[in-house]
Amino acid sequence: MVFVIRRVLQSVIVVLVMSLVVFVGVHLVGDPVHILINDDMTKEEVERFVRKLGLDRPMHEQYLHFLANAARGDLGNSFVHNEPALKLIVERMPATLELAFAAFLLAIVVGIPLGMYAGLKPESPGSRAIMAGSILGFSLPTFWVGLMLIMVFAVMLGWLPSTGRGEFGTWDGLRHLALPALNLALFKMALVTRLARAGTREAALQDYVKFARAKGLSPSRVVLVHVLKNILVPVVTVLGLELGGLIAFSVVTETVFAWPGMGKLLIDSIQRLDRPVIVAYLVITVLMFVVINLVVDLLYAALDPRVRLREMKA
Amino acid sequence: MTFLSRVLATAAALAISAGASAQELRVGLASEPTSMDPHYHNLSPNNSLLSHIFESLVDQDERQRLQPGLAESWKAIDDNTWEFKLRRNVKFHDGTPFTADDVLFSFERAPNVEGSPASFGIYARGKTLVKVDDHTVHIKTETPYPLMPNDVSQIFIVSKKHATGAKTPDFNSGKAAVGTGAFRYVEYTPGNRIVVQRNDAYWGAKPQWSRVTFRGLKSAPSRVAALLAGDVDLIEQVPAIDLERLKKDPKIDVAQIVSNRIMYLHLDHFRDDSPFVKAKDGGAIKNPLRDLRVRTAISKAIDRDAIVSRVMEGVAIKAGQLLPEGFFGVSSKLQPVAYDPNGAKKLLAEAGVPNGFRLTIHSPNDRYPNDAKIAEAIGQMLTRIGIDTQVVTMTSGVFFREASSGGPDKTPKFSLILVGWGSGTGETSSPLKSLLATHDQKKGMGGANRGRYSNPAVDKLIDQALATVDDGKRQDLLARAAEVAIEDVGIVPLHYVVNVWAMRKGFSYKARADEYTLAGGVTKAN
Question: What is the pTM of this model?
Answer without folding.
Answer: 0.85
